[in-house]
Specification:
Elements: E1 9-14, E2 20-25, H1 34-44, E3 49-53, E4 56-61, H2 67-99
Antiparallel strand pairs: 1-2, 2-4, 3-4
Helix pairs in contact: 1-2
């Protein structure tokens, strides 16, 4: 099975004249972060429907002109979630070291 790099994506199926599905393919190294990223993305865009499946995220977007912006926003959210999760133990240790006497 081929896994694309985390930035590869495809605009998926046309649902109707006004709606489209943006499919973002998620590489294995980002799969651990995709659920939390999807929740944070839906907080930013509550009007969108987001579905997470193994290896991909589908976003129902009504305006074709916003697809590139939504793709960029989701990938940014996913990458920020990866950074947050991976650096949380370091930040907790630093705070513990600074605040201990």
């Amino acid at each position: 099975m081929h896994y694309p790099c985390w930035g590869e994506w495809a605009v998926g199926i046309i649902v109707s004249e006004s709606d489209s599905i943006l499919t973002v393919v998620v590489a294995p190294q980002f799969e651990a972060f995709v659920l939390n990223a999807a929740v944070k993305f839906q907080i930013q865009f509550p009007e969108l429907e987001v579905q997470v499946e193994h290896g991909a995220v589908a976003i129902l977007c009504g305006d074709h002109s916003k697809v590139a912006d939504l793709r960029r926003a989701f990938l940014h959210t996913l990458y920020r979630e990866k950074i947050y999760t991976e650096t949380l133990p370091l930040r907790a240790n630093l705070i513990a070291a600074v605040t201990s006497r």
